[in-house]
Amino acid sequence: MVNAILEGIARREGARVLASLIRTLGDFDLAEDALQDAYIRALQRWPTTGVPDRPAAWLLTVARRAALDKLRANRMIGTQQSDDVAINDALRVAPIEYDDTTLDDPVQRSGVDDDRLRLIFTCCHPAIAPAAQASLALRTLCGLETREIARAFLEPEATTAQRLVRAKQKIREAGIPFAVPDREKLAERTSVVLGVIYLVFNEGYAATEHASFVRATLCAEAIRLARLVVELLPDDGEARGLLALLLLTDARRASRLDECGMIVPLELQDRTKWDIAQRNEGSALVAPALAEGSGPYRIQAAIAALHTEAATAADTDWLQIVALYAALLQHTPSAVVELNTAAALAMAIGPEHGLMWMNRLANDGQLKGFHLLPAAQADLLRRLERWAEAADAYRAALQLVKAPAERRYLEWRLAGLGLRE
Q1: What is the pTM of this model?
Q2: Which of 261, 273, 312, 391 has fewest C-beta within 10 Å?
Q3: Alpha helices per DSSP H over 154-295
Q4: Mean of all residue pLDDT scores within the chain
Q5: What three-state secondary structure class fits 263?
């Protein structure tokens, strides 16, 4: 029972507590270790004492004490009054009361008092290598293990581990402040910050490697952070485009899995389950953002709006979606965007046209190991009634897929082909 309760608290509040610890301690590794110590002590004590009324505050206080004990053990500070008053003030904890007021700091010059948004800006400091910025944010904000981050970026786990170590070391040695920069310096980091928030959302919407395919708390956290960025930069069209994209995409979340935990593709989803209020809020943001110019998030938001505003799958304006994907390719040319464009083209003018494009991508080898490519090829081959080839493609996708929800769907489609062969 306590294990399940603690897991839920960690899922809901872990990022908030960790961000506060990182601000307080100025050391990512020490903060992570201290929080793990607090979780262990919770498992030891809560079965006897009961779950505290404010569990996040309890974890924060116990983690700070664990950090202080470790610092003293390492002789980084002494047991007597330290000359570094700032460290002592930061680590001071009340002996009885568990205080959660310091989970958020007073508003700073940028006007932001949210530790998690500050954490993203810290991770996205220009002194940190671009490849490491998103990895560090996924580690701290999402709680992803190194292997999960490696899978998300299609790279060896050792590469990800080294990148994380270097990024934390850079923050520590360079004294990178735990803060949102002054408004005049926001522009140099905004695009990277938006990208990280997008990654956080994607990890919640389709988990890389997690027991639950959909992690609603991460989706909600990404939307909350996107709202904060819009408040911080109300004139930034891409920030509003990202918020619109997340709202429109998340509006479909309740229909993505069936009662057996199998993923349901967009065309088969029960649209009565969609969150209409969230859809309307996202749609209202799209046109004004696009009127100010184009950008990858604004374009993707427009695509999402066309999907969510269609009364049925058959009513989807696929030609307009193809045009939008063509514009997206101009902004962010990548094999994944090409794959999505090919899928839209297949829906707009015929599966054989999309299949030709996908076959070229497969021959290029850019998406090797990416299960969605053979899965998409299998879908088009099925539509073309090329049953044997479709079955081979589904089997290829099954060799690569990790998420059980997606595996069930591919197995269901493959089993359906068996009735036709």
Answers
A1: 0.79
A2: 312
A3: 157-174, 187-205, 216-232, 237-250, 276-291
A4: 85
A5: strand
